[in-house]
Amino acid sequence: MKGYNFGTIKPSFIIIGVQKAGTSSLHHYLTQHPKLIAPELKELHYFDTLKPTPPEGYLDFFPKEYFTRNLSFEATPRYLYFPGTAKKLYEFDPNLKLIVILRDPVKRAYSAWNMYRQMSMEPNQKELARQHEKRNPTEKAYTFLYSGKFPSFEEWIKTEMKICLASDFIEPSIIRRGYYKEQIENYLNYFSRDQMHFVDFQDLKGNIISVLNNIAKFLNISEFNNLDLNLNIQNERKYTKELDPDLYKTLLSHFQEKNNGLEELVNQNLKWMHV
């Protein structure tokens, strides 16, 4: 019975990035397709670690079904950024398909800062960050973000550009996560271009069904046109103030330089590359 699963449904594809670009919403939309299933937990964070990642531990997260051709997946947006994850995923399954959402990197960074700022107000967040840093010494989010007064967006940028870029620290990373081209090139050292599908964040916001149908084609499943879908946005956070326009221009210039050649790499016209 070729093509059928007989037990744990090994993931066929993974949404690997980027953070704060609608991965929660896309995950929510995809799980409504009758051919797609996913673990209850959206972000498994199994391969974004420097520790060994045996496949058995990963597969334990996935549902078990028998005599089905359903496809399973997960979404962990740190996978695109985290060093060594591309190799780990390739070793897990060289035939994996990968989905990446690309967002204006300045707006993505500002959204990430806003998320961490709100999280810093949660009573247990500092302790969770402290414990995580203790277990993962190269991740310094507690030291730089939570051990004192939470930094402004401008202060965070200066800290990351001055300290983190000249070190082996993996976190904090709101600036470095916007270096899409080098991260994608790293994945292309392991996976073919045909195994990667790229989505523009603006299209996901304005042309959802078109984006979903293109993904359906990529996955070789039926389109989303006739499905009764809940298209509500997931995990949307409010801002207390707008991003400074001059700072936006300065940062955008930096990201445009770092991502020179990205459009050709992903075969997409990205508006923020031409502002």
Automatic annotation (TrEMBL):
GO MF annotation terms: sulfotransferase activity
Pfam families reported for this sequence: Sulfotransfer_1
Chain ranges passing through the membrane: none
SUPFAM superfamilies: P-loop containing nucleoside triphosphate hydrolases (SSF52540)
UniProtKB keywords: Glycoprotein, Transferase
InterPro entries in the record: NST/OST (IPR037359), P-loop_NTPase (IPR027417), Sulfotransferase_dom (IPR000863)
Superkingdom of the source species: Bacteria
Domain called Sulfotransferase: residue spans: 11-238
Gene3D superfamilies, alphabetized: P-loop containing nucleotide triphosphate hydrolases
Mitochondrion as UniProt keyword: no
Protein name: Sulfotransferase domain-containing protein
Species of origin: Ulvibacter antarcticus
Lineage start: Bacteria, Pseudomonadati, Bacteroidota, Flavobacteriia, Flavobacteriales
